[in-house]
Amino acid sequence: MSKQALIVIDVQNDYFPVGKWELAGMDAAAANVGRLLRHARQKDMPVVHIRHEFAGADAPFFAPGSPGAAIHPSAAPSEGEPVVLKHHINSFRDTQLLSLLEGEHVEEVLICGAMSHMCVDACTRAANDFGFKVTVAHDACASRDLEFNGVKVPAAHAHAAFMSALGFAYADMRSTDELVMH
User: Fold this and answer.
1) pTM (2 decimals)?
2) Which ranges carry the Isochorismatase-like domain (predicted)?
3) Is omega for the bond preceding 115 within 30 degrees of 0, making it cis?
4) In this structure, are residues 163 and 135 in contact, taking their beta carbons and an 8 Å threshold?
5) What are the chain's domains?
6) Which residues contact 155 (CB under 8 A, 6 or more apart)?
7) Are 51 and 75 in contact (CB under 8 A)?
8) Tell me: the pLDDT tens digits for 119-171?
9) Of 130, 171, 141, which is closest to residue 10 (Cα–Cα)?
């Protein structure tokens, strides 16, 4: 059986109500992230937390050292679980994520967190490109309303579009219930 790791992406205060960049359904997604964390810890599965900070204090959210850039209590790391600081959308870019996974002899990754249409998407595609078997806990991810060229895209539609695209060729899409029940 191959070794799987849980990657928790950007479950940070600014994404929650009263944060600087609130996501639709972040509380529900975070509750499922918490369930996945408990499950991974019970199974002695490696867990890697990703935390995003932008490069300047004038950032729209996740400003360096700000309370909004801190990991939300719902996804707090346990002792010994690495926290990877990133400054780009892709969690692998200019970080030690790949070397951490390789050091643990991980072959499969389970991804959850935020935002569905940005960092979850980028990490999922990169993990697949690096040869990992990827599963995304689709109900442990959150997005927000988007707009392009005058077309408003509700958060639920943005999330569904990205999960559908990732599920087509990059990842196995599973609910938290499916993942913690087996």
Assistant:
1) 0.97
2) 5-148
3) yes
4) no
5) 4-180 (3.40.50.850)
6) 23, 24, 25, 142, 143, 144, 145, 146
7) no
8) 999 999 999 999 999 999 999 999 999 999 999 999 999 999 999 999 999 99
9) 141
